[in-house]
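Table S7 (text form). Paired inputs.
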Amino acid sequence: MTESTLAGKTILMSGGSRGIGLAIALRAARDGANIVLLAKTDTPHPKLEGTVHTAAAAIVEAGGRALPLVGDVRNDDDITDAVMKAQGEFGGIDIVINNASVIDLSGSLDLSAKKYDLMQDVNVRGTFLLSRAAVPMLKDAENPHILSLSPPLNLSPKWLGAHTGYTLAKYGMTMATLGIAAEFASDGIAANTLWPRTTIATAAVQFSLGGERMMRASRTPEIYADAAYEVLRRPAAERTGRTLVVEDVLTESGVTDFSRYAAVPGTPDAELFPDIFLD
C-alpha cells in the first residue's frame, strides 16, 4: 500500500541546490509538495551549478512550493530557524531528507583534520540534529518519514579501510538514522537510509571520484529521486530502520528496466560503475 501522492506534504531537506537532493525535491514538487531547503549556496559557485534560489525556482516551476533558506546544517540556530519557518510557512513537517554531505576519499595519512571534522559535522552531526529538531513536528504528521542518503553498514575491510575518514562519516549518518528509527518507532516515525548500486552523475562524482569517464558510466540522479519517492509514499508503519538500496526499492515497486536512467543513453548495465560500500 502506498499513498497516491506527496501533494501538500512538507519536506525539510538539507542541501538540495543541485544533484540528487534537487532531483528528489523536483520529483516531490511534481505532486505539489512543499519543499524547505536549508543550504549554504546563496551565490553561484565558480565550478558548480545551482544555488538555493535557483533550486527554489525550479521547484515552483515543477509544481511545488518552495522555501529557500540560506543556512548551514552545522549551525544549531540555522537548524532551529529552518524547523520553525517550515512550521510557520506550511504548518508543520512531514518528511526530513538528510541530503547534505561532504566527501573526501583521502587515506588516513593524507586526510586533514579540518576535512575530517567537516565530514563529521555535516554528515553525522547535521543528520542527527536536523532529524532531532524535526521530531516534535513529525510526531504530529500523518505519515512521517526521515530519509538519509547514506549506505548500509558494510563492515568488510574492503570498505572500512578504503577511505576510513569518509567511511566513518557516511556510516555515522546511517547509525544516527537507525538509532532514531528505533528510538521513535513507537511514535510512528519511519527513518530509513537509501543508497545506489551504481555511481550517480553528480558534481561530487565528477570532482571526487573520476571525472568525465566516471560520469559517463553513471546513472542520472532521477533514479535516486524515483526510489526516494517510492519510500516516502509508503505508510511509515510499514518500513523503518532499514538500509535500502535504490534499485531494490524500484524493483519492488515494479520497475524492471533501468536503461532510461543511464547518464549516456544506451549504456549497458554491465558497463556502469558500481558505487562504494556495496559488495
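Next pair, protein 2 of 2.
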Amino acid sequence: MGQRPLFVRAAWFLLVGWWATPILVNVAWALNATVLLLPVGIKLINLVPTVLTLKEPRSRLEPGSGRGQRSLVVRAVYFVLVGWWLSWLWANVAAVLAVTIVGLPVAYWMFNRLPYVTSLYRFDG
C-alpha cells in the first residue's frame, strides 16, 4: 500500500492530527522517563509522523529502505544523553507552532523529524 491521498491526509490533520500529536508526544515522553516502558515510548515517538498526517514510513513502503540506520548502541547512548530531553522540547515547540498559520509548515517539518531527534531513527529510511 502506498501513501494515502493528499486530501485524506489533510483532512486527518485538520480533524485529528493537530491535537492528537501533542498528546501522543507527551504520553510517549512520560513513558520514556521510565525504564520499563521506554520501548513503548520510543515506538510511540516513531509513530508521530503517522499520527500527525497518516504518513507511512518509507520502510513500510519500500523493502530494504530501513537500511542505513545507526547502530542500536549509538542510538541508545544518544537517547540517554540528548534525545530524551531534546525530543520533549522539540515536540512541544512544534505543538505551539502548529496552532499558528505562519508556524504550521515549520511544525509539520519538526514533527516529521521527531523520531530522529529522539533516537536518531530515520523515519524515511
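Residues 6-17+32-119 form one domain.
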